[in-house]
Amino acid sequence: MKLTKKSHACIRLEKNGQTLVLDPGGFSEEDAAAGADAILVTHEHVDHFDEGRLRTALDANPAAELWTLASVAEQLSAAFPGRVHTVGHGDTFTAAGFDVQVHGELHAVIHPDIPRITNVGYLVDGAVFHPGDALTVPDHPVDTLLLPVMAPWSKLSEVVDYVREVKPQRAYDIHDALLTDLARPIYDRLVGGLGGAEHHRLTPGTSAEV
């Protein structure tokens, strides 16, 4: 399938003329969800979920559908009856021709004083895993890990150990809007050198075959 990086945590996957978009949030491009046949959202934080952009995408394509957890679904289901699906850990479904497994339940700890919200990750076609804001390890081999490299809830040693635990063939950076160009070579060197997998970084708008 074709993987296209959008800004921050948003990824577009294309296969057989169908497009699946994951986490077109407020840190991504205004048109990040445009043309989507199916959309997956991992959790409710603004950098992953932008209600206006989802409404625009669903209005533009009456056949498009959304899969997400309850906290997001309840904000959109009334406006798009039958097209917004609530999912949780262990669920499987087909979205725009892609087979999807749901893994994980909770957002990573930002601070002990901040209550944890729900978060799910999506394994697409048994190959590409988007964990959202968590370091969830699926009980299934992962070829391509979409790796959250920089967040308020993580440190670099945890990112490296996450790659080691998942053991993907390759990892592509996501969740990188807060990472400056000055710091990127440090992350590239340490994640690539210590993680034990191919490490790749795509600039927004560029693509790779996975």
Molecular structure report:
- It contains 4 helices and 14 strands.
- It has helices spanning 51-60, 70-73, 156-166, 184-194; strands at 2-5, 11-15, 18-22, 38-40, 65-68, 84-86, 92-95, 98-103, 121-124, 128-130, 144-148, 170-174, 198-200, 207-209.
- Helix 3 (156-166) runs parallel beside helix 4.
Question: Care to give the gist of this entry?
Answer:
With 210 residues, the protein is of the alpha/beta class.
Topology record:
Layout: E1 2-5, E2 11-15, E3 18-22, E4 38-40, H1 51-60, E5 65-68, H2 70-73, E6 84-86, E7 92-95, E8 98-103, E9 121-124, E10 128-130, E11 144-148, H3 156-166, E12 170-174, H4 184-194, E13 198-200, E14 207-209
Parallel strand pairs: 3-4, 4-5, 5-6, 10-11, 11-12, 12-13
Antiparallel strand pairs: 1-2, 1-14, 2-3, 7-8, 8-9, 9-10
Give the helix level as a range of percent: 10-25%
Tell me the distance between the termini. Answer: 6 Å
- Enumerate the strands of the largest sheet in spatial order, edge to edge or round the barrel: 6-5-4-3-2-1-14
Number of helices: 4
Integer-rounded radius of gyration: 16 Å
The dominant shape is globular
Strand fraction band? 25-35%
Order of helices and strands: EEEEHEHEEEEEEHEHEE
Average predicted confidence as pLDDT = 97
Main beta sheet: strand number and arrangement? 7 strands, mixed
Identify low-pLDDT runs. none
DSSP summary, beta strand count: 14
Please identify the structural class as seen in this structure: alpha/beta
